[in-house]
Amino acid sequence: MPSVLIVEDEPAIADTLIYALETENFAVTHVATGGEAWAHFESHAPDFVVLDIGLPDFTGFDVCRTIRQSSQVPILFLTARSSEIDQVLGLELGADDYVTKPFSPRAVVARVRAILRRGGSNSTATQHSDLLFHCCETMSIHCCNQPLDLTAYEYKILAILLEQPGRVFTREQLLIQAWDDPGSAMDRTIDAHIKSLRAKLRDVSNDAAETIQTRRGLGYALVL
Q: Which is it for strands 48-51 and 3-7: parallel, antiparallel or unpaired?
């Protein structure tokens, strides 16, 4: 019997979901806060998490980010927040699906079953998307589901490399694309920013740092 953790602070919504899931032979646990969710997750390791975003203590995004640091358990966001940015952020943080309120309980149960059948998180992501995510809407890049603290130029350089993995960019090409006034910087400026980028990636993952490769006499490429 698959176990489902529901993280929802509205009792009426939680009761509706509990009934729908238990009717379909799921074992359901309900908590109302992010703190309770993490405590239950650590002690019981559910098979699936249904997660609201607007919680009393933490956001559902915070809970999802914390879970993804140690687990690939399937996560479905169930929330009244329907903006495209929220949906993109939720999926890039590692959620498998995003359902907005009001919703059909039977449809939610069907989605839970479908995600469990296909086995695991981020089924729509590519193999390397767990390593680096680029969200154009928020102008942010995540490494292993953790946001990178980048300067403006570090962000621009890494975004350029991410747009075309495998392509070798010369220093001049990176200067032209990343700087408003390319003449105000030198080739060595690119080298310094690449060094800083590698250090920040290495703080999160050694594998991520190795993705920025130097092609001697040519430039740099992102190899995923």
A: parallel
